[in-house]
Design goal:
Layout lengths: L12 E3 H11 L4 E4 L6 H9 L3 E4 L3 H15 L3 E5 L3 H16 L3 E7 L15 H6 L4 E3 L7 H13 L5 E7 H5 L1 E3 L19 H12 L4 E5 L1 H5 L3 H11 L3 E3 L19 H7 L2 E5 L20 E6 L13 E4 L2 H14 L9 H21 L8 H8 L8 E5 L2 H9 L8 E2 L10 H15 L5 E6 H7 L2 H7 L5 E6 L2 E2 L1 E2 L2 H8 L4 H4 L12 H6 L3 E5 L2 H13 L5 E6 L20
Parallel strand pairs: 2-3, 2-4, 4-5, 5-7, 6-7, 9-10, 9-11, 11-12, 12-13, 14-15, 14-16, 16-17, 17-21, 20-21
Antiparallel strand pairs: 1-8, 18-19
Helix pairs in contact: 1-2, 1-6, 3-4, 3-16, 8-12, 10-12, 13-14, 14-15, 14-22
């Protein structure tokens, strides 16, 4: 079987499945995730024959999460393969999540035969139309001849401009139909996206605004991580002495332990900065829209973004720098090389931020020092943090698990934290972890992937631990178990409440089964499982998991069901009084 389009013999004949696989291989697609069935089984087999790694998942949603994580981590989209109708519908959640996160992914799904359209065919559904809501590009090839062209356009569209999801619909009869290679419209591999530079006048204006700032702040988004802008952003921070705040997946672009990182004073930094340099981050809900009371009403925003339509959303920037983050930051560095300037290290602004950092860190340490059992979140993360390898990839989801973990688990390298993201999607964790582990195995053997889940979040895709076991992916999954969503009940309270009547009437909606043994899900498939209740048990279990490099493991950490976050300066998204 040919491994790429240029290797196709002129007189040979291929099936549609083989053409799809060869076209994907030509476009440098390396990973495919899916749930096979009629009519896409042959596509998965052809992909494997072409040298594309196929990972069979337990749900199309998790498969799409994994494929999109490949796109974010490598810059080249992974593929989610789904069957028609319900299979494709399951994948829509992953497509929407990828689009919201601006991550490239290709979804390929089978569909009803062309000659059965509108006849009520098996799993017939308007798939192309449905996917247009969740993708940049959605198409159904008109013939086998154009398959390579459509695949190339899907890959190119997914990575050019603002990255996102693309969909290719494959009629069932096209999968097994044959075509002579001479009839194919072949196209070469699309090149990496062109990197746009900002208007030099706007760059100069932005640099002068930064120089005149009394309280400057750099906000580093996941767009900066995707751009591989870490080297130049680190240099800008160091050369100009600028305090910086990473967004959750911007962590590690500049190491969290850098002296100018102000994550521990996030609210104070955002509220009091007079000039904010926004690098690949959007002023959406995650940054409180850039509006009061979380920001100054007169704050000056310098916005760097790859997407022109994003510039000016919610707050009109004083300088709009349209272009690739890495390229634009290099332009700023060029200015400061000619016009040297550094923000004073003893400034009132930096001292003001460091004062809050010290207070918050002391408060977190005090909460972590609580010796009472069950443990609280802070004790769990205080125990985990010193044991984690500095180059590990951290996957995190859950409410308090993700939010508190973000502040206590450090990232030192870019693209080493993946979480619920812009869409706030629960259920992404295990799919992300599988993708990260595959890439780590191929590119950086012995690098560890740590997947830290709330017990509710784990429930969305928990069966994917079988996938980890099947492919020998040594992911360490840690379930922080508080018996519920946000909070739960201890076992005694559960039993008492259950005596009051029908569980569906009396059990609180946020409650899950107390002391559920999630570690047994892992051991059922041959992985290692640990049930822990004390810091020492957690420490021993994590050391054991990190020593095991060939097998996945799961640590089920029991914490106080009423454990929560330290008091926040601002309420979060809703006015709920729970």
């Amino acid at each position: 079987f040919p491994v790429a389009m240029e290797e196709l013999g002129v007189g040979s004949e291929l099936s549609g499945a083989e053409v799809i696989a060869a076209a994907l291989k030509e476009q440098d697609v390396r990973y495919m995730f899916g749930v096979v069935g009629i009519p896409v089984i042959e596509i998965a087999m052809a992909a494997q024959a072409a040298g594309i790694k196929y990972i069979g998942m337990r749900n199309e949603q998790a498969a799409c999460y994994a494929a999109s994580a490949v796109g974010y981590l490598t810059g080249r989209p992974g593929v989610c393969l789904a069957v028609s109708g319900p299979g494709l519908i399951h994948a829509l959640g992953g497509m929407a999540n990828a689009n919201m996160n601006c991550w490239p992914v290709i979804v390929i799904a089978g569909s009803s035969d062309k000659n059965q359209e509108t006849m009520g065919a098996f799993q017939e559904f308007p798939q192309v139309e449905a996917c247009r809501l969740y993708s940049k590009f959605s198409a159904r090839p008109s013939s086998l001849e154009v398959l390579p062209v459509i695949i190339e356009k899907a890959v190119r569209s997914s990575i050019y401009g603002r990255p996102g999801a693309c969909y290719v619909d494959i009629p069932g009869d096209m999968v097994t139909s044959k075509i002579h290679t001479a009839s194919l419209r072949t196209v070469p591999c699309c090149s990496s996206p062109p990197l746009g530079t900002a208007d030099p006048t706007a760059v100069r204006e932005a640099a002068l605004i930064i120089k005149n700032a009394k309280r400057p702040l750099v906000v580093v988004g996941k767009g900066a991580a995707y751009s591989h802008a870490e080297e130049c952003i680190r240099k800008l921070v160091d050369v100009c002495g600028l305090p910086f705040l990473p967004t959750p997946m911007g962590k590690g672009v500049v190491p969290d332990d850098h002296l100018l990182c102000v994550s521990a004073a996030r609210s104070r930094a955002l509220l009091n900065a007079d000039v904010i340099l926004l690098l690949g981050a959007r002023l959406n809900w995650m940054l409180h829209f850039g509006l009061p009371p979380r920001f100054r009403s007169d704050v000056k925003i310098i916005q760097v973004d790859i997407c022109a339509e994003e510039l000016g959303n919610n707050v009109m920037p004083v300088a709009a720098l349209l272009g690739d983050v890495k390229t634009v930051v290099r332009q700023l560095l060029d200015f400061f090389k000619i016009n040297p300037w550094i923000f004073p290290s003893k400034s009132e602004w930096l001292l003001f931020l460091k004062e809050k950092i010290k207070a918050n860190e002391e408060l977190s340490q005090a909460m972590a020092a609580h010796k009472s059992l069950p443990m609280n979140y802070y004790m769990v993360f205080h125990t985990i943090q010193p044991l984690l390898p500095k180059d590990c990839i951290i996957i995190s989801e859950g409410a308090n698990t993700m939010d508190i973990g973000r502040t206590m688990l450090h990232n030192y390298l870019p693209r080493h934290r993946l979480d619920a993201g812009t869409f706030g999607t629960m259920g992404v964790g295990l799919g992300f972890a599988i993708a990260a582990a595959l890439i780590a195995n191929d590119q950086t053997p012995h690098q560890r992937v740590i997947c830290i889940e709330g017990d509710s979040a784990f429930g969305f895709s928990g069966m994917e631990v079988e996938t980890m076991c099947r492919y020998n992916l040594p992911v360490v999954t840690i379930v922080v178990n508080n018996n519920g969503i946000y909070s739960g009940l201890d076992e005694d309270s559960w039993k008492t409440m259950a005596e009051f009547g029908e569980p569906s009437i009396v059990i609180p909606p946020t409650t899950l089964l107390p002391n559920a043994h999630y570690e047994q899900v892992m051991t059922a498939f041959g992985g290692k499982g640990y049930f822990v209740q004390t810091p020492e048990e957690l420490r021993k279990a994590l050391v054991s998991c990190l020593a095991q490099e060939k097998m996945p493991s799961l640590i089920n950490v029991m914490i106080n069901p009423s454990s929560g976050r330290k008091k926040q300066d601002f309420t979060w998204l809703t006015l709920s009084k729970m």
